[in-house]
Design a protein that fits this description.
- The protein is an alpha/beta fold.
- 26% of the residues lie in helices and 21% in strands.
- The protein has helices at residues 64-72, 84-87, 96-111, 160-171, 173-190, 215-239, 280-283, 294-302, 304-309, 328-342, and strands at residues 21-22, 40-41, 43-48, 77-82, 115-120, 196-200, 246-249, 271-273, 276-277, 314-315, 317-318, 345-348, 377-381, 383-391, 396-403, 410-414, 420-425, 427-432, 435-440, 445-452.
- It has an 8-stranded parallel beta sheet with strand order 8-7-6-5-4-3-12-10. Strands 1-14-15-20-17 form a 5-stranded antiparallel beta sheet, with helices on one face.
Length: 453
């Protein structure tokens, strides 16, 4: 998550958020996110994590309830945080117990029809600096200093020891091999699990600026010269075990300030660009400023990479800490409208029960304004999407598509709790609680309308 350390001088005029969340126009040059049956996917969900427990208790805070509740609210996607330091606590020794715990979580997800992105997570590199991620045995600092920042943990990324550790991870041949080996183990174990949609190769990667570089210049160089080769290495490692899953690649967090990424091409046919969507001031506790133009600047920056390299984009994390401030309701409306314009998927941060960033409180009720993330949507479309939009004021979702001529004919919708009417022009709808299916003749033009009852 982005903290107050990152700054950028981006200022643009704000735009009024439309009442309707429009889907982007179909661009035949940009591949859509698809499942194994070729259906066009939309992913809506949340991160699921256990940062507090490790070793024998690792992942114990993640329960079946997480996935039951996600599905009950209409979500079909979870970004599951896993940690290399738990997977390989000693060099060359992979924890079978940890792999079994991941597998148990994936089984829960499959039971509730939730797709899972396995995220190789790191915060401030790893346990050598009091956090989680890269193991201590893979942490090299050359004796450079590290000073904790208890009130602003993200500032610890800018400590010399942490920055040097990233340099060694990217550049040292043995650490490169070790990181690739960890991914071969994960992909080899879960390649055929039906809940797994893909792998997020590293969370919020950072690096070491050179003398005289400002933050944006350093981020661009790190992305071009270090992250791009790393992602290509890790893609090769995953593909040695899993030929089918999507590979999610992240820029540095500076993209959250409206700065386009310097990432280059990742040579794989199933790459997803996976930036995060955080605002510096809001991460520090400020209210949303609709006149600052942040969302507009972010949106312009974040679409540059997928347009250039013809890849889908899925936002891997988003959502402010304090959602009860006066303008937060407008933030969620503006943010949901923006996300609908350019991405088929997102994962909010974070599905847990309590305070802070948690989506819901101890009773399972949404915390302030987070219920605005709940909307009807097309989980999968068997055909070519013409348009898709949701009007939150009227409570009306519309989907237009041309049914596929070959393969599966089943399009699936996710319906939030409550009463919804589903009609389909040119197709046969059927439904159950929280879900609806549309079956259309091959090549038929279909218009689906979902209305709040």
């Amino acid at each position: 998550m982005l903290r107050t350390t990152l700054t950028a001088g981006v200022a643009v005029a704000a735009l009024l958020a439309p009442a309707t969340h429009p889907a982007p126009r179909e661009d035949p040059g940009v591949p859509r996110l698809t499942d194994r049956q070729g259906r066009v996917l939309t992913l809506r969900g949340w991160n699921v994590e256990d940062k507090a427990n490790r070793g024998e208790k690792a992942l114990s805070a993640v329960t079946e309830r997480h996935f039951r509740d996600l599905r009950a609210h209409g979500f079909d996607f979870a970004r599951l945080l896993v940690f290399w330091d738990d997977l390989e606590p000693r060099r060359g020794h992979y924890s079978e117990a940890y792999l079994r715990r991941i597998e148990r979580i994936l089984d829960w997800a499959q039971r509730y029809r939730v797709k899972v992105l396995i995220d190789a997570h790191q915060d401030v590199f790893g346990p050598a600096f009091g956090h989680r991620g890269i193991p201590e045995w893979a942490t090299r600092t050359d004796g450079l200093p590290f000073r904790p920042h208890p009130g602003d943990w993200f500032a610890e990324y800018f400590e010399p020891a942490v920055q040097r550790a990233f340099t060694h991870l990217y550049d040292d041949p043995d650490l490169r091999r070790a990181q690739a080996g960890a991914w071969r183990v994960l992909a080899g174990r879960f390649a055929h699990h039906p809940a797994v949609i893909g792998y997020d190769l590293i969370n919020e990667p950072m690096g070491e600026p050179k003398e005289g570089e400002d933050l944006a210049t350093a981020a661009d160089r790190i992305e071009r010269e270090q992250l791009t080769p790393m992602y290509n290495r890790l893609a090769d490692a995953v593909r040695s075990a899993d030929r089918d899953a999507w590979l999610f690649v992240e820029p540095t967090p500076i993209v959250g300030e409206g700065v386009p990424t310097g990432l280059g091409r990742v040579d794989d046919p199933k790459v997803v660009y996976a930036p995060h969507f955080y605002n510096t001031a809001m991460e520090a506790g400020a209210d949303y400023d609709p006149d600052a133009g942040w969302i507009e600047a972010y949106e312009r920056a974040v679409v540059a990479y997928p347009k250039r390299y013809k890849v889908p984009v899925v936002v891997g994390e988003w959502g402010p800490l304090n959602t009860s401030l006066p303008h937060m309701r407008q933030f969620y409306g503006d943010a949901m409208a923006s996300l609908a314009r350019y991405t088929p998927g997102w994962a909010g941060y974070v599905w847990c029960y309590g305070g802070g960033y948690c989506a819901v409180d101890d009773s399972g009720a949404f915390r302030a304004n987070k219920e605005l993330t709940v909307e009807p949507y097309a989980v999968s479309v068997a055909g070519t999407v013409r348009s898709a939009s949701y009007d939150p004021r009227a409570g009306v979702y519309r989907l237009a598509y041309r049914a596929a001529r070959h393969g599966t004919r089943l399009t699936e919708l996710s319906l939030p709790p409550g009463g919804w009417r589903v009609t389909a022009d040119g197709a046969v709808p059927r439904r159950e609680a929280g879900r609806a299916w549309i079956v259309a003749a091959p090549g038929r033009e279909v218009v689906v309308t979902v209305e709040r009852a």
